[in-house]
Design brief:
By secondary structure, this protein is of the alpha/beta class. Helices cover about 55% and strands about 10% of the residues. It contains twelve helices and five strands.
């Protein structure tokens, strides 16, 4: 079987199935059911869970291209931090109250870490540029899209030219062609975004757009941007915890409304008048 070192742990296991002996296949099926468990289990614990010997575990990890169980476990742990939610699955907590308490505590820790590192003058610098910009662009991909949509909706109450990317049915190029110097682009750059996200940032920067990035990716500091807001999204479960990202978006939106001035208040007033005329709310 051909081994490819760039393959993920899960893809290596799946590709090996036809070449495994019965006991190794049983081990493979076990780890595919809960691959994230490997990050916290010893080789002996995994062997016991699958009902195989320690020697089978050693043979198995070598067959899928790792030099040792520790190397395989390290790959699972690293991928769980930045990769698929599947690798953050573990055995479920039996006590729902404990699960809720753990989630609340993690959310609190994420908020504290994010706000302790946040430069509040930077927030108002972003907001001032939003008000001065001819056009404001909000971009988000995968998990970032609904958060970008939320921020666009909120600041759109006082800013007349807010656009959300990507638009349904439209290529990114069709929108990016309208980037203009002194526009502002805020990108929600969250883990496992497509490569297109970085390309949009580069295109906007090259066009003279003021770029702000809110996210949790390791490459945040390397991206060509005027503003960077790092958010903690640590989680003990399969899904990353985006509580702090939403909080930062809410903070920016709140300050945008608070600093809107007479024109912003007039726009909000017109919106309320039209709500009444249409009977929407």
């Amino acid at each position: 079987m051909k081994k490819t070192t760039s393959r993920s742990f899960i893809s290596r296991v799946r590709a090996s199935m036809a070449d495994l002996h019965p006991s190794e296949r049983r081990l493979a099926e076990t780890v595919l059911n809960f691959p994230g468990d490997m990050a916290g289990y010893t080789a002996s614990e995994v062997a016991e869970l699958a009902g195989v010997s320690n020697a089978t575990v050693s043979r198995f990890v070598r067959k899928i291209g790792y030099r040792s169980y520790e190397e395989a476990r390290r790959a699972v742990r690293d991928a769980g931090r930045t990769g698929t939610a599947l690798l953050r699955f573990g055995t479920a907590e039996g006590d729902p109250a404990h699960a809720v308490t753990a989630h609340l505590e993690q959310s609190r820790l994420n908020l504290e870490k994010t706000y302790n590192e946040l430069d509040f003058k930077l927030v108002d610098d972003i907001v001032g540029s939003l008000h001065a910009a001819p056009k404001v662009w909000l971009a988000g991909f995968r998990a970032g899209y609904p958060l970008a949509s939320y921020l666009a909706w909120q600041i759109g109450q006082v800013l007349p030219s807010v656009r959300l990317l990507p638009k349904p049915g439209e290529t990114l190029a069709e929108s990016a062609a309208s980037f203009g110097a002194t526009d502002v682009l805020i990108v929600l750059s969250l883990r496992r975004a497509p490569r297109t996200a970085a390309s949009v940032v580069e295109l906007a920067h090259d066009a003279g757009v003021h770029v702000g990035i809110i996210g949790d990716v390791a490459e945040l500091e390397a991206m060509p941007a005027r503003w960077r807001v790092a958010c903690s999204t640590a989680s003990k479960g399969p899904l990353l915890n985006h509580t702090s990202v939403l909080a930062v978006c809410n903070l920016i939106a709140t300050r945008t409304l608070e600093l809107a001035g007479p024109e912003g208040r007039q726009r909000m007033g017109r919106i309320e008048d039209i709500h009444d005329r249409l009977g929407e709310l």
